[in-house]
Write a structure and sequence with these properties.
- The complex is a heterodimer of chains A (183) and B (120).
- Chain A is an all-alpha fold and 183 residues long.
- Chain A is 73% helix and 0% strand.
- Chain A has one domain (5-179).
- Chain A has six helices and no strands.
- Chain B is mainly α and 120 residues long.
- In chain B, helix 1 (18-43) runs parallel beside helix 4 and helix 2 crosses helix 3 (62-85).
- The chains are: A mainly alpha (183), B mainly alpha (120).
- Chain A binds chain B through residues 37, 40-42, 45-46, 67, 71-72, 75-76, 79-80, 114-115, 118-119, 121-123, 125-126, 128-130, 132-134, 136-137, 140-141, 143-144, 146-151, 154, 157-158, 161, and chain B through 2-7, 9-10, 12, 14-15, 19-20, 23-24, 26-27, 30-31, 34-35, 38, 58-61, 63-64, 66-67, 70-71, 74, 78, 92-93, 96, 100, 103, 106-107, 110-113, 116.
Chain lengths: 183, 120
């Protein structure tokens, strides 16, 4: 039971950082959703704000880590100029995942690249931008958010946007790595 | 009027909304630049070459330029607007809707069916 260096980076990018971000979303949303008057004491506000700041900050850092490892470490292996794909059932040392998908040598796989990968690689970068602004809003306003329902909703929209972008990227990443794994 | 009496015990001073508005608009602006560059890369080979020049030999292709430039412009717009509005009360709702509009346009720009229609 072992992983190659490339498989390990794919795991760090998708299963560790990406999954951590998606899982953290539920906690962040719950914490912000219930941050409203009448549900929490003054002492509770201070504790909740600290938790929101740490949680949103961690999510922003994780989002940046996910897209940077994905783009600068894993993606070059995906798109390497290796096109000896005839007769293969999976990508190999002579056939990169991108060229394997485009060659349609194991079913109609080209759309996984043309639509799936093309959307994933771009939309993913929206996630850290939105997560960073959501974090900065929580950091700047802190406890004041509780008295401003509209501001809380705006931060939730940013958070949901960051999650949505990461979810699209994550789902397509998982499917593409199933059809044409990086190894 | 304070809608949350729990806050009274914390004695918090008010903060201007300018920096908050900067955070909202810059997020939308960054996503808009991402979508714009994604579509521009498809429409112009010259732009594609320039965007690929950001990859520093790492094999990332034009995605290097699209992601790096949009991230840099996100932070730049955030810094500029934050400094400009640091002591001002900017309409937060208006800023949110501007950011949202820019963000939606950016997402459309990253959608393959859309940007591939501009293929040169």
């Amino acid at each position: 039971m072992e992983l190659t260096s490339r498989e390990s980076w794919a795991v760090i990018h998708g299963l560790v950082l990406g999954a951590l971000f998606l899982l953290a979303f539920a906690g962040a949303l719950a914490g912000l959703w219930s941050f409203r008057p009448g549900l929490i004491t003054a002492k509770g506000i201070q504790e909740r704000v600290l938790r929101l700041k740490v949680g949103f900050g961690a999510m922003a850092v994780i989002a940046w880590g996910t897209v940077i490892t994905g783009t600068w470490i894993v993606y070059p292996w995906y798109r390497a100029k290796l096109d000896q794909c005839a007769g293969l059932e999976l990508p190999s040392a002579a056939c990169s995942p991108r060229n394997f998908l485009l060659a349609n040598v194991n079913g109609q796989t080209a759309d996984w690249h043309h639509f799936g990968m093309e959307w994933k690689e771009h939309i993913a970068w929206a996630s850290p931008l939105l997560a960073t602004s959501a974090f900065l809003l929580v950091l700047y306003y802190g406890p004041r958010i509780i008295a401003r329902p509209w501001l809380r909703t705006a931060i939730i929209v940013l958070l949901v946007g960051a999650f949505g972008a990461a979810a699209i990227a994550g789902v397509f990443g998982a499917f593409i790595n199933k059809v044409a794994p990086i190894s | 009027m304070n809608q949350s009496p729990e806050l009274d015990a914390l004695n918090l001073a008010d903060k201007p909304d300018g920096p908050g508005a900067a955070m909202m608009i810059s997020a939308g602006f960054g996503v808009f630049v991402l979508g714009f560059l994604t579509t521009l890369n498809e429409a112009s080979k010259g732009a594609g070459t320039w965007l690929a020049s950001w990859q520093w030999g790492q094999g990332v292709g034009a995605l290097a330029g699209k992601s790096t430039v949009s991230s840099l412009l996100y932070f730049a717009s955030l810094a500029v607007l934050w400094v400009m509005w640091r002591n001002k009360d900017v309409d937060l709702k208006k800023a949110f809707y501007i950011g949202l509009g820019l963000g939606v346009l950016g997402v459309i720009g990253t959608f393959p069916t859309f940007f591939q229609a501009f293929a040169a």
